[in-house]
Design a protein that fits this description.
Elements (H helix, E strand, L loop, with lengths): L2 H73 L12
């Protein structure tokens, strides 16, 4: 074998080893990314649950205030006109 053939075989082996190591590193990075996204999803889900829990009482208070305002408006059926009837 010539020196060139040995050098090419050595370089091919070296590049294969480096690509294998790089592939393993990419696998670990993607695995860590999956864990981080899972934690982020849990945090966002908890925030959504908190928002839903605070939304329910606000809706009931808003509905009760609306009903009270409707009763107040119905008690005073005579409302003043701000315009003159023309005909």
């Amino acid at each position: 074998m010539d020196f060139l053939e040995i050098a090419l075989i050595f370089l091919i082996l070296l590049l294969s080893i480096f690509l294998g190591i790089a592939g393993i590193q990419v696998f670990f990075i993607l695995r860590d990314l999956k864990k981080a996204l899972g934690k982020l999803d849990a945090v966002l889900q908890a925030g959504e649950n908190i928002a839903e829990d605070t939304e329910k009482p606000a809706e009931t208070v808003g509905a009760k205030v609306a009903k009270a305002l409707e009763k107040v408006i119905k008690r005073n059926p005579k409302s003043k006109r701000f315009y003159k009837k023309v005909l």
